[in-house]
Write a structure and sequence with these properties.
Elements lengths: L18 E11 L6 E8 L3 E6 L5 E8 L5 E8 L15 E10 L4 E11 L6 E10 L7
Antiparallel strand pairs: 1-2, 1-8, 2-3, 3-4, 4-5, 5-6, 6-7, 7-8
């Protein structure tokens, strides 16, 4: 769906999700995982980028607007052991996340996600919610 089809009160102030966002992630399944920060970036043409605030691990994916005024996006992230320099030898598969979000009239993003292991990462599953604020060109959010 074209971005112009969204009602002004459903989208952020400039009418677009494109840009960079400071995100707080809350894992609900499994329980007991601490909240963490991430950075999300949405580029024109459907390119999505994610940086994990715990490990600086980058992820890339694709995004699109949905007919029900949300953003659907996915992210692909290689999985490496924490605290080690990443190498092809210590890569343990990858994580695929599927996310949906909505930006309210105040410019706040809220969403949900599921993440699961792929490429040999077995028994990995995460689900939860996230909230975020757009990073403005003047350095505020």
């Amino acid at each position: 769906m074209a971005p112009a089809a969204f009602a002004d009160d459903e989208r952020d102030g400039d009418g677009r999700v494109e840009g960079s966002w400071y995100i707080t992630v809350h894992v609900t399944d499994p329980t007991g995982v601490p909240d963490f920060d991430a950075l999300y970036a949405f580029a024109k043409g459907g390119v999505f980028t994610r940086i994990d605030g715990r490990t600086n691990a980058p992820g890339v994916g694709t995004w699109e607007y949905t007919e029900d005024h949300q953003v659907l996006f996915s992210s692909f992230l290689f999985n490496f052991p924490s605290g080690q320099v990443p190498t092809p030898a210590n890569r343990n598969g990858a994580i695929m996340a599927v996310l949906t979000a909505r930006v309210d009239r105040h410019g706040q993003m809220t969403g949900t996600f599921v993440g699961f292991g792929i490429l040999g990462l077995t028994n990995f599953y995460r689900a939860g919610t996230f909230t975020g604020t757009k990073i403005q060109p003047d350095g505020t959010f």
